Amino acid sequence: MRQLIIEKNPDSKGLVQVTGKDFKYLRQVLRVKAGDMLSLRLLDGSLKNSTVAAIDEKSRKITLQVCADTDVKTITRGVQASQLNNADSSLSIQGIEYWLFQFIPKPVKLEQIVRQATECGIKHIVPVIGEYSEKSSILALDNTKKERIERIIKEARQQSGSPVDTVLHEPLTLDQAIELWMSCGAEGESLAEKAGEQGAGGQTSAALAASVGFVLSERDDGDGDVRSILKKKSEENKIQRICIACGCEGGISPEEVELLLKKGLFYPLHFSVNILRCETAALYGIAAVQTAV
Quick one: which of 282, 287, 47 has its CA closest to 161? Predict the structure, then answer.
């Protein structure tokens, strides 16, 4: 684990109490002991080092003390979350907000897609009720399943050290998903709210000019030259948002692709590779676009 995401800010003394599943993970998996250092991701997104001040086995509680920023290594392995924040990574250089329109697949596949998308720094994951989505898979996205996926997001951020606060949206129809994409600016803020007295129309146009969407298609109705599309768009405006639409097991219907192209201003994207499973296609598409920026 490269960071511990806490759900409550430290108290006035800089103390954080860790209980429940986080206690179990820290104690039984990482086997932390008093004096160990941990990286904490606070509610405002900032990263702080902390020391394990006390471990109470009886009440199953670990007390962490937030400390001043230092170069002391934490017990987590590999590249630390603090280093990711400062490194010349794709996220820190691009400053781009990534979206994923994922047409709802079977639950186990959706969980894998969400985990991988979170590790890749996707900000908004929108489950889309598509023509080829199975009814049982749609119904499976109830409150219990959503809670499980939220835990998966948290675990994925902790393992990867992602500074991006990934958001899982409620399942939407394709029309609703497009409307959300067209009506929100960076960080998912309503363009109407951001426009204020200037009027929403100009603000919406500006935000869309700084946005680009790709729909992954099994049909040869678009090329795989992501770089040229992004280069052309960036010459017009600095890109602030990128959305990738990925189908479920049956893909995306021709009518749905057409809707994304016309109403959402997406570009069709076809990769000349083997036929990919939906969970592979989502990761492949995200990686291809992020690499090309």
Answer: 47
Residue with tokens 């606070």: 42
| Lookup: tokens for 273 | 């590779």
What letter represents residue 17's amino acid? Q
Tell me the two tokens of residue 252.
């995306």
Written as six digits, the tokens of 259 are: 């809707």
Q: Which residue has the tokens 């959503």?
A: 146
Neighbours of 236 (CB within 10 A): 9
One-character DSSP codes across 233-254: HHHHS---EEEEEE-BTTB--H
Alpha-helical segments (H) within the chain: 20-24, 81-86, 90-94, 107-119, 135-139, 143-160, 174-183, 191-195, 200-209, 226-236, 254-263, 278-292
CA 254 → CA 58, 126, 210, distances in Å?
59, 20, 26
Q: Cα separation of 78 and 1, whole Å?
A: 9
Q: Which two tokens stand for residue 233?
A: 């768009």
Structure tokens that stand for 89 in this block: 């990574």
Tens digit of each residue's pLDDT (9 = 90 or more) over 124-183: 999 999 999 999 999 998 877 888 999 999 999 999 999 999 999 999 999 999 999 998
Angle at 8 between CA 55 and CA 27, to 5 degrees: 25
Return the number of other C-beta atoms located less than 10 Å from residue 28's C-beta: 9
User: How is residue 133 written in tokens?
Assistant: 């989505």
Give the tens place of pLDDT for each residue, 184-234.
865 555 544 444 434 444 545 677 788 999 999 877 766 668 899 999 888
Q: Which amino acid is at 153?
A: I
Residue 243 has pLDDT above 80, yes or no: yes
DSSP secondary structure of 90-129: HHHHH--EEEEEEE---HHHHHHHHHHHHHTT-SEEEEEE
